[in-house]
Amino acid sequence: MKNNILIAYYSWSGNTRNIARRIERETGGRLFEIEPAQPYTTDYRAAVAQAKKEIEAVFRPELQSMPNITSYTIAFIGTPIWWHTMAPPVATFIERFDLNGKTVVPFHTHGGGGVGSFEEDIAKMCPDATVTKASAHTTAEDLKPRRRLLPG
User: Fold this and answer.
1) Contacts of 106 (CB under 8 A, 6+ apart)
2) Mean pLDDT of 140-150
3) How confident is the model at residue 69 (pLDDT cuts 50, 70, 90)?
4) Is the distance from CB of 83 to CB of 59 less than 8 angstroms?
5) What CATH fold (topology level) applies to the domain 5-143?
6) Which residues contact 57 (CB under 8 A, 6 or more apart)?
7) 103 contacts 129 by C-beta, under 8 angstroms
8) Distances, alpha carbon 58 to alpha carbons 16, 43, 55, 79, 89, in Å
9) What is the mean pLDDT of residues 32-60?
10) How far apart are CA 22 and CA 132, in angstroms?
11) Fewest CB atoms within 10 A around its CB: which of 30, 33, 70, 72?
């Protein structure tokens, strides 16, 4: 395992977790799940309403834990796109994780609404880091299992 790569992600439905695991396999980095101290409801409509309120209020939820950051030079940071930006737990993580001098590789999932302002938002939150373009993204549709067609 490469001890200089951290793959930090928040996943509400599991889609972002799937991408994080793919990145882990490809890079050998260490996975870290960003978990809010108070988990979001599993009810989709209620979670959407809560997310909208939190993003509009620039709310930063408390997190269950933070990783020790001293050995990481590269941080993959993953989020679902909520209301055109990152989920609030990811914003909390970015604000509390010292990314100065590190390379930040953002990745995201979305249900088809696009990346929104996520790329600009993460770059603004990491002014003293090298932030790459969000390159590892997918939609929920991309994660559905594909049926393999066998010759008849």
Assistant:
1) 76, 77, 78, 79, 118, 119, 122, 131, 132, 134
2) 38
3) confident
4) no
5) Rossmann fold (3.40.50)
6) none
7) yes
8) 22, 22, 5, 16, 11
9) 94
10) 18
11) 70
Q: Where are the domains of the chain?
A: 5-143
Q: How far is residue 126's CA from residue 149's CA, in Å, rounded to a whole number?
A: 45
**Secondary structure of the chain in HEC code, one letter for each residue:** CCCCEEEEECCCCCHHHHHHHHHHHHHCCEEEECCECCCCCCCHHHHHHHHHHHHHCCCCCCECCCCCCCCCCEEEEEEEEECCEECHHHHHHHHHCCCCCCEEEEEEEECCCCCCCHHHHHHHHCCCCEECCCCEEEEHHHHCCCCCCCCC
- Asked whether the predicted pLDDT for residue 114 surpasses 80, the reply is no
Tell me the backbone φ, ψ of residue 135, rounded to 5 degrees. Answer: -115, -20
42 pLDDT above the threshold of 70: yes
- Rounded to two decimals, what is the model's pTM? 0.84
Q: What per-residue confidence (pLDDT) applies to 2?
A: 60
Nearest CA to 62 out of 72, 54, 53, 71 is that of: 54
Q: Which residue has the higher pLDDT, 3 or 47?
A: 47
Instruction: State both tokens at 143.
Output: 């994660």
